[in-house]
Amino acid sequence: MVEISHYSKEVVNICRKIYNNQLVKQGEGNVSIRIPNQNAMIITPSENDYENLSEDNMIHMDFDGVVLQGKLKPSSEHIMHCYIYRKRPKVNCIIHTHSPNVSILSVLHNDLPVIFEEMAMLLGGSVKCSKFAQAGTEELPKVAIKAMKKQNTVILANHGLLVVGRTSEYCVKTAVIIEKMVNIFLNAKKIGDVKVISTDNQKKFIEIFDARYSTY
Predict the structure, then answer these.
(1) Which of 33, 36, 98, 120 could form a disulfide with 202 if both were Cys (CB 3.0 to 4.6 A apart)?
(2) Into how many domains does the chain fold?
(3) For residue 172, what are the domain limits?
(4) Residue 1: what pLDDT?
(5) Where are the alpha helices (DSSP H) in the chain?
């Protein structure tokens, strides 16, 4: 039997990091980790209480949506997590946040262009905004995956940010950096025209993304 306490602890640690970085508030967002050699995950409960979250609050669930262990109701976005794990075997962690600046772009249905070279290296290019789909439905991950294409991140229209990755460290770092980049982008637009990095100047950095971080 797989020891799941390690993965429950990891999810709790991720939650603390995104909460401390102000990417979510109480009751917002969700986090999951794939359990190796199982078609299953550990996912956060519905309406996260980030300040009091513990390993016992986590839900062990298979990719068909069946709860294997856990007393609380799983996140309402468990359908999205299950769908993405099935579609992308290289994904081992999923984070969904409602970070303030990304949420501004999400209600504008705007993409985030590449304004720093590190975005091309870490994200593989600009962060696209998906079409709108209702939360908690299978349509949401479908539009998310379509907008994400070969990358790991997508802005969910009228909803927030979705990050997938090979590791939890990558997902947390990426969620933090995207919020920072959107903050810079929105403030720069108030002053003048934002100068984005050309596709040609992104190529060598995107090659690094493909080698190190891609889950496609």
Answers:
(1) 120
(2) 1
(3) 5-212
(4) 44
(5) 5-20, 78-87, 100-108, 117-123, 139-148, 168-191, 199-212
